[in-house]
Specification:
By secondary structure, the protein is an alpha+beta fold. The protein is built from nine helices and 14 strands. It folds into two domains: about 170 residues, Immunoglobulin-like; about 90 residues, Sandwich (Immunoglobulin-like), CATH 2.60.40.420. Helix 2 packs antiparallel against helix 3, helix 5 crosses helix 9 and helix 7 crosses helix 9. It binds heme C and copper (II) ion. Heme C binds next to helix 6, helix 7 and helix 9.
C-alpha cells in the first residue's frame, strides 16, 4: 500500500507548485517588468541577458549530461576487478586539458566584454550630446528631481520627453538608495557624497513605475516614484506649467484663501517650498502639488481624502515619515487640502 500513498501525496503537491511557478510569470507583464523594453538601455541589457543565458544553458548541458551519464549509465560493471578504474587515458589528455581550459576562458571573455562595454556605455562621465540633464536625489523616503535646464524642482513624479536622451546625476542626501524604473532599464545606486550617472533614451510615451532598490530604513518599500514619458509637445507644455507661478489662493474661493492662510501660518513653510509663499527644502516642493497624480513617494493616489489623511498623520500611512503630525483641526485641514489641491 505504501507506494500508492506516496504517489497520492506527491500529486497533491502539483497544483501549489504549478501556482508558484506560474506566479513567476506575472512579473513578465507587470509594471516593474524587466522584460518590457522601452529604452535603448533596457533593450541592450536584455540582449546581453539572452546571450549569457544561452551560454548558461549550453554549459549546464555540457556538464550535466556527461555527469548523469557517468553516474547512472556508464558505471563500470562490478566484475572489472581491482585497478581497472585507474587506467584512464594517461598520455593523451594534454590537448583535452588545453581545450577545456581555453574554451571556457573564451566563453567568459565573450560575456565579459559586452557586459563591461554596456556598463560604461550607460554611465558616461559627461552627458551625451543633446541629453536632458536631471539631478535625481534620494531622500528618506522620497525622490527629488531637479532640471537645471529649466530651473525646476519636483518630487516623485519625473517627466521626460520620448526620443531624447536623459542623463541622470544620481545623488543622496542621507543614506544609500537605488534608482530603478525597470521598464526603462539602467539601475544605479545613489550614494551620499558621490555622484553616479546613468543615461538612456525612452522610446515612447508612457507611465513607468520606479522603486528605491537599496534598503534605506523603515519606509524603504514606500520610496517609489513615477516616470512619465511624454511626447515632446506635452513635455514642453508640462515644463511651462511647472515654471508658471502656482495659483496662490487669492482667487474668489474663500475656502482656498483660508487654506493659504493656514499654510502660511503653520510649520509647513519651514519644510516645503511653494513658489512665492515659502522656501523650505526639507520636504518636497509643493508649488504644483495639485497637478500630481500621486502623494508621498508615489504610494497614494493624489485625492483630497488621501491628502487629508496624510496631513492628519503621515506616520500612519508611511512609517517613519519625516513629516510630523501637526495637530491641525478638521476645518483647518480641510481648507488646507482645498488650497493644496488648487495648486495646479
Ligand atoms: C519637518 C518638516 C515638515 C513639515 C513641518 C511639514 N512637512 Fe510635509 N513633508 C515633509 C517631508 C520630509 C515629506 C516627504 C515624506 C515622504 O514622502 O516620505 C513631506 C510630504 C508632504 C506632502 C506630499 C508631497 C508629495 O510630493 O507627494 C504634502 C502634501 C505635505 N508634506 C504637506 C505638508 C503640509 C500641508 C504641512 C503643514 C501642515 C507639512 N507638510 C509640514 C516634511 C515636512
Ligand atoms: Cu531609498
Amino acid at each position: 500500500m505504501r507506494p500508492m500513498v506516496l504517489k497520492a501525496r506527491r500529486s497533491r503537491l502539483i497544483p501549489p507548485l504549478a501556482c508558484l511557478m506560474l506566479a513567476g510569470c506575472a512579473p513578465l507583464q507587470g509594471p516593474l517588468s524587466t522584460f518590457i523594453l522601452d529604452s535603448d538601455s533596457a533593450r541592450d541589457a536584455y540582449h546581453l541577458f539572452r546571450y549569457t543565458f544561452i551560454w548558461d544553458v549550453i554549459i549546464m548541458l555540457t556538464v550535466l549530461v556527461p555527469l548523469v551519464l557517468a553516474l547512472f549509465v556508464l558505471t563500470p560493471k562490478k566484475s572489472g576487478g581491482a585497478g581497472h578504474e585507474a587506467e584512464g587515458h594517461a598520455g593523451s589528455t594534454r590537448w583535452l586539458e588545453a581545450a577545456w581550459t581555453i574554451t571556457p576562458a573564451l566563453i567568459l571573455i565573450s560575456m565579459a566584454v559586452p557586459s563591461i562595454r554596456l556598463t560604461f556605455q550607460y554611465q558616461p562621465k559627461a552627458p551625451p550630446a543633446g541629453a536632458l540633464r536631471v539631478r535625481a536625489i534620494g531622500h528618506q523616503w522620497w525622490w527629488e528631481f531637479q532640471y537645471p535646464e529649466f530651473h525646476l524642482t519636483v518630487a516623485d513624479e519625473l517627466h521626460i520627453p520620448a526620443g531624447r536622451a536623459v542623463y541622470f546625476d544620481l545623488e543622496s542626501v542621507d543614506v544609500l538608495h537605488g534608482f530603478w524604473a525597470p521598464e526603462l532599464g539602467g539601475k544605479r545606486d545613489t550614494i551620499p557624497g558621490h555622484v553616479n550617472h546613468l543615461t538612456y533614451t525612452p522610446d515612447k510615451p508612457g507611465e513607468y513605475f520606479g522603486e528605491c532598490t537599496q534598503f534605506c530604513g523603515l519606509s524603504h518599500a514606500n520610496m517609489r516614484f513615477r516616470i512619465f514619458v511624454d511626447t515632446p509637445e506635452k513635455f514642453a507644455a508640462w515644463v511651462k506649467q511647472q515654471q508658471a507661478s502656482p495659483a496662490t489662493g487669492q482667487g474668489p474661493n474663500p475656502k482656498i484663501e483660508a487654506g493659504a492662510a493656514v499654510f502660511a501660518a503653520a510649520p509647513c513653510v519651514a519644510c516645503h517650498t511653494i513658489e512665492g509663499v515659502s522656501k523650505g527644502y526639507i520636504g518636497p516642493n509643493l508649488s504644483h502639488i495639485g497637478s500630481h497624480q500621486t502623494l508621498a513617494g508615489s504610494i497614494l493616489p493624489n485625492t483630497p481624502e488621501n491628502m487629508t489623511k496624510w496631513i492628519h498623520n503621515p506616520d500612519a500611512l508611511k512609517p517613519g515619515a519625516q513629516m510630523p503630525a501637526l495637530g491641525l483641526d478638521p476645518v483647518e485641514t480641510s481648507d488646507l487640502v482645498a488650497y493644496l489641491e488648487s495648486l495646479k
